[in-house]
Amino acid sequence: MLNIVLFGPPGAGKGTQSQSLIEKYSLVHLSTGDILRAEIAGGTELGKYAKQIMDKGDLVPDEVVIQMISNKIDANLAAKGFIFDGFPRTIPQAQALDEMLAQKETAISCMVSLTVPEDELVSRLIKRGQTSGRADDNETAIRNRFNEYMKKTLPVASFYQNQHKLYQIDGVGSLDSIFERIEGVLSHFSA
Length: 191
Ligand code: AMP
Fold this sequence. Notes:
This protein has a five-stranded parallel beta sheet with strand order 2-3-1-4-5, sandwiched between helices. The chain is built from nine helices and five strands. It is α/β, with parallel strands linked by helices. Adenosine monophosphate binds next to helix 2 and helix 3.
């Protein structure tokens, strides 16, 4: 299997690049943010619970997102591989993911980390906020999402670096040129 963690701060372009990747590599895209937003749109109990956390830009508790990902992996056992987008966002999530994949006799192939300067991220997110309809694309929530990223999520890159699986990609430029850089990394791995 080809199992990729697409990593980077809010606004790095993970969702956009995921779309191109699933088309080319026929992988199953697992975005915890998208799954949570679908729960909100469906008016479920989980959605109601998650919405008040997400609107502030805080992280949803580990056990909630770990269970969501576990269910999705079990529901897609025939997949050629997965793109994890927005997950894992904490060290406990990364450890749980390693265990889940080991149980299926597979593992993360690599983490592709998109690097973008902070002022570029803020301007992208403010622009997205004008069209996305996302309740967390406002200045207060954006600031909090960056804080959460620096405090809890950035250590996840070291977690994969220790496993020699971290690849840093320049996330600035045209969508095609960024995609080519990601393809360059993935060419070292087979499904
Ligand atoms: P995203 O679409 O990835 O930017 O996620 C939007 C929001 O969903 C985040 O700010 C968190 O509140 C929540 N969320 C998404 N993925 C996770 C995760 N892996 N762990 C905790 N919270 C998450």
